[in-house]
Automatic annotation (TrEMBL):
InterPro entries: CysJ-like_FAD-binding (IPR003097), Flavdoxin-like (IPR001094), Flavodoxin/NO_synth (IPR008254), Flavoprotein-like_sf (IPR029039), NADPH_Cyt_P450_Rdtase_alpha (IPR023173), Riboflavin_synthase-like_b-brl (IPR017938). SUPFAM superfamilies: Flavoproteins, Riboflavin synthase domain-like. Its main location: cytoplasm. Pfam families: FAD_binding_1, Flavodoxin_1. Its cofactor is FMN; FAD. The gene is LOC102605269. Keywords: Cytoplasm, FAD, Flavoprotein, FMN, NADP, Oxidoreductase. One of its GO terms (cellular component) is nucleus. The keyword Cytoplasm applies. It is found in: Cytoplasm. GO terms for molecular function: FMN binding; oxidoreductase activity, acting on NAD(P)H. This is Nadph-cytochrome P450 oxydoreductase. Residues 10-154 form the Flavodoxin-like domain. The lineage of its organism: Eukaryota, Viridiplantae, Streptophyta, Embryophyta, Tracheophyta. It comes from Solanum tuberosum (Potato).
Length: 384
């Protein structure tokens, strides 16, 4: 009997402060899977640094924040790597690649990627390719460097270990089955079914439950790992600076909604931004959905990452669709990412729209997409 060898998984670890590195890491993951290579994609704080020497190949995607500072999620990992007792050959079996996201307008340009690359190499790891540096100043943002870096990476990995890409390092034809698995699963409830679940719960408690439930699907530090102690209602939000002064300084006042609260110096308040109600309505209408319906959202997480999977799925009450869009989505301010156009291309029925969307999602269409999308600051609602 011939035993089929289990395909190797490519480990991709990311550290992000505002989401770009997650987007870049997911793109890498998708591209690897399209080449037949299964992937394990993790935030670096979900990875045990002591197991790093056992990894044959690791891809890091890390951004720089502050003044050359580490994103929060890589702090523990970085501290571990800096330990003096780690020897020069601690990572001698590890092959790695680093892609950094930064902005050359900052003095400490891509500092985190550069120092991570150096430290890995000092600890005996071997770089598969030279580190890639994405720059916000590039006319296509960090994607400008990511595209060519990725194609070099696939070739180098294939040379290192052809088993990673059983069908070669070139892209397989794109079709629907290669689309990412959905990140969340949504169950729709009709209005009566949704509200009857809550008839005995006071309004304030209900709103809290809905906010908690919505936050659970958000990535990174806003998600359930850092569940808030209590919710406050913002009752005042007055600008203190003059319009056009270049700064936006505000006076906020908050009121405890459920019970009185105690706080100390150093406690942190997260402000949950809402969206313009008219934009939320327009988005829901455009999608032919009922704003009053209730949805239940479940995260389809990496099975390997059981802990965060359980955590993020424990508090799942049905949420009013309108509340969900208001609190968890951004339909009317930020520009959609490139992947949005790719996904839309699978669903577009008009041939000319499909072609245009496919072009925007391709490396050749990248600069035109930037002109159309980011430069014009188009929103999801406008694109739809
Ligand atoms: C507050 C702030 C500070 C930043 N500081 C730096 C920096 O010191 N060096 C750098 O190269 N880029 C810096 N950047 C640019 C980011 O690294 C870049 O926008 C990156 O794409 C962000 O990735 P992320 O969303 O995954 O955190 C900074 C960005 C922000 C918003």
């Amino acid at each position: 009997m011939v035993m089929e060898e289990k395909p190797k998984k490519l480990l991709i670890l990311y550290a992000s402060e505002t989401g770009n590195a997650i987007d870049a890491a997911e793109r890498l993951g998708r591209e690897a899977e399209r080449r037949g290579c299964p992937v394990l994609l993790l935030s670096v704080d979900d990875f045990d640094p002591s197991s790093l020497p056992d990894q044959e190949i690791v891809i890091f995607v890390v951004s720089t924040t502050g003044q050359g500072d580490n994103p929060d999620s890589i702090k523990v990992f970085w501290k571990f790597l800096l330990q003096r007792n780690l020897t020069q050959n601690w990572l001698s079996r590890v092959n790695y690649a680093v892609f950094g996201l930064g902005d050359s307008g900052y003095q400490k340009y891509n500092f985190v990627a550069k120092k991570l690359d150096k430290r890995l190499s000092d600890l005996g790891a071997t770089a598969v390719v030279e580190r890639g540096l994405g720059d916000d100043q590039h006319s296509s943002g960090y994607e400008g460097a990511l595209d060519p870096w990725m194609s070099t990476l696939w070739k180098a990995l294939y040379q290192k270990d052809p088993k990673l890409f059983p069908k070669g390092p070139e892209l397989m034809t794109s079709n629907m089955s290669l689309m990412d698995q959905p990140k969340v699963q949504i169950t729709y409830h009709d209005v009566v079914e949704g509200t009857s679940n809550f008839s005995s719960i006071p309004d304030v408690k209900l709103l809290e439950m809905q906010i908690e439930s919505t936050r659970f699907i958000l990535p990174g530090k806003l998600a359930g790992k850092y569940s808030p102690e209590c919710f406050l209602k913002m009752v005042k939000n007055d600008p203190l600076s003059k319009a056009g002064s270049g700064k936006d300084v505000r006076h906020f006042e908050f009121e405890a909604v459920s019970s009185s609260i105690e706080y100390e110096v150093g406690d942190v308040v997260h402000i949950l931004p809402g969206q313009d109600a008219a934009a939320v309505d327009a988005f829901i209408k455009r999608c032919n959905l009922n704003p009053e319906s209730y949805i239940q959202v479940q995260v389809n997480d990496n099975k390997e990452n059981e802990q965060s999977y359980d955590l993020r799925n424990t508090l799942k009450v049905p949420v009013r669709l309108k509340t969900f869009v208001e609190l968890a989505m951004d339909v009317a301010s930020a520009s959609p990412r490139r992947y949005f156009f790719e996904v839309m291309s699978y669903f577009a029925t008009a041939e000319h729209e499909k072609e245009r969307l496919q072009y925007f999602a391709s490396p050749e269409g990248r600069d035109d997409l930037y002109e159309y999308n980011q430069k014009e600051r188009r929103t999801v609602l406008e694109v739809l």
